[in-house]
TrEMBL record:
Ranges annotated as biased composition (Pro residues): 32-48, 77-90, 199-214, 226-258
UniProt keyword list: DNA-binding, Metal-binding, Nucleus, Transcription, Transcription regulation, Zinc
Protein name as catalogued: Transcription activator of gluconeogenesis ERT1
Compositionally biased intervals (Acidic residues): 276-289, 318-329
Compositionally biased tracts (Basic and acidic residues): 305-317
Classification via PANTHER family: FUNGAL TRANSCRIPTIONAL REGULATORY PROTEIN, N-TERMINAL DOMAIN-CONTAINING PROTEIN (PTHR47659:SF7), ZN(II)2CYS6 TRANSCRIPTION FACTOR (EUROFUNG)-RELATED (PTHR47659)
InterPro entries: ERT1_acuK_gluconeogen_tf (IPR050335), Zn2-C6_fun-type_DNA-bd_sf (IPR036864), Zn2Cys6_DnaBD (IPR001138)
Tree of life domain: Eukaryota
GO MF assignments: DNA binding; DNA-binding transcription factor activity, RNA polymerase II-specific; zinc ion binding
Length: 329
DNA sequence: GTCGTCGGACCATCAAGAAG
DNA sequence: TTCTTGATGGTCCGACGACT
């Protein structure tokens, strides 16, 4: 994804409580204030194709949009000075024959597996069309230490999120809450975000263990070992994205206990990657829970699931494509 | 137009090094 | 033992010039 961090509201810089105007026709109590450090469930859609940043360099709409938790993705802000990237179609990989004939090799032209090869037949050099001698690779050359760069992808590397920690164990690479620059919350991806999106933050499902050094947090508090205060998500019926302020007649409601959201359907913005494992995990986890399509009820509960992507490297086959060589008219 | 030459991008292979 | 990295040796694209 992108290394640029998002500017939309779901960051720690945002006020922890919703400060906007009360939504019309709100039912079910006041919008619950978010615990300190928790971002609101607001996000923006990605900029439309060809949309230019405004004078502030922002491609966000003038109003926030609400997605139900479990499908909440913000999108990373495009760098203001970034020129519009031209659409690039990756060139198909060029196939090579295992061994070109001596004539083709000398002329640096495309050969094929046939003997005589196509080119030699065409130019009447079939009698001299034969394989050359391949040199043997040198052995025993010292190479020095390698840089490891293709580690198995984690949720974090794939989606820019940090998996929740086990109790009593700090996740690798995550500073404790009292450390400078520590994230106030952990990020949990419910579903793979669409291209160009990153998941919104959720509170960790487990307690913060005491900091390794026993020091208080940056805000002076001590980790109690208790789970952090949960975010009480709120929802509106319908299909995401929801405009905010919501249109007149919108009814807010809290999710009944045990209600979980379905993964995005094909009509929703989501990548197709890694969905099966997540779905399975979600189903296993919430077997007893009632599943409600958000399009029907717009309910969701923040459940924890990750996905992993692994970069396989298996390209050992070799088939020739018998492409006619030669200049055309 | 065809054909030969050639620089260099691209590709497949595989030994060395790293990890499990 | 298996996987990953990266150097190596190779193919062949595409530009160019000579020639017909
Ligand atoms: Zn050939
Ligand atoms: Zn040949």
């Amino acid at each position: 994804m992108t290394t640029e961090q998002p500017k939309p509201p779901s960051t720690t810089e945002q006020p922890a409580t919703y400060a906007g105007p009360p939504p019309p026709h709100f039912i079910g109590g006041a919008i619950p204030p978010l615990p300190p450090g928790y971002p609101p469930f607001f996000t923006y859609p990605p900029p439309a194709e060809g949309q230019q940043p405004d004078s502030n360099g922002s491609t966000a709409p003038p109003y926030p949009l609400m997605y139900p938790p479990g499908m909440v993705y913000a999108f990373p802000q495009a760098p203001p000075a970034a020129p519009p990237a031209p659409p690039t179609t990756p060139r198909p990989k060029r196939k090579q024959v295992k061994m070109a004939c001596t004539n083709c090799a000398a002329a640096s032209k495309r050969c094929d597996e046939n003997r005589p090869c196509n080119r030699c037949q065409k130019y009447g050099t079939a009698d001299s069309c034969m394989d050359g001698q391949r040199k043997e690779r040198k052995k025993g050359i010292k190479r020095g230490p390698y840089k490891r760069k293709n580690k198995p992808q984690t949720v974090e590397s794939a989606y820019g999120v940090i998996p929740p920690p086990e109790v009593g164990e700090w996740p690798q690479g995550v500073p404790p809450p009292n450390a400078a620059g520590a994230p106030p919350i952990y990020a949990v991806a419910q579903f793979p975000p669409p291209e160009g999106y990153y998941p919104v933050f959720y509170p960790p499902p487990t307690a913060y263990p005491p900091p390794p050094d026993g020091q208080p947090n940056a805000d002076g508090s001590q980790n109690s070992g208790q789970p952090p205060p949960p975010i009480m998500p709120f929802y509106i019926p319908g299909f995401p994205p929801f405009p905010y302020p919501p249109p007149p007649g919108t009814v807010f409601q809290f999710p009944p206990p045990g209600i979980v959201a379905h993964p995005p359907t094909a009509s929703q913005p989501a990548t197709g990657a890694a969905e099966s494992e997540q779905e399975q995990q979600a189903e296993e986890k919430d077997e007893e829970a009632t599943c409600v399509n958000p399009a029907d009820l717009s309910d969701a509960a923040a459940t924890d699931s990750h996905s992993k992507a692994h970069d396989g490297d298996a390209n050992k086959t070799d088939e020739d494509e018998n492409v006619e060589d030669g200049s055309q008219a």
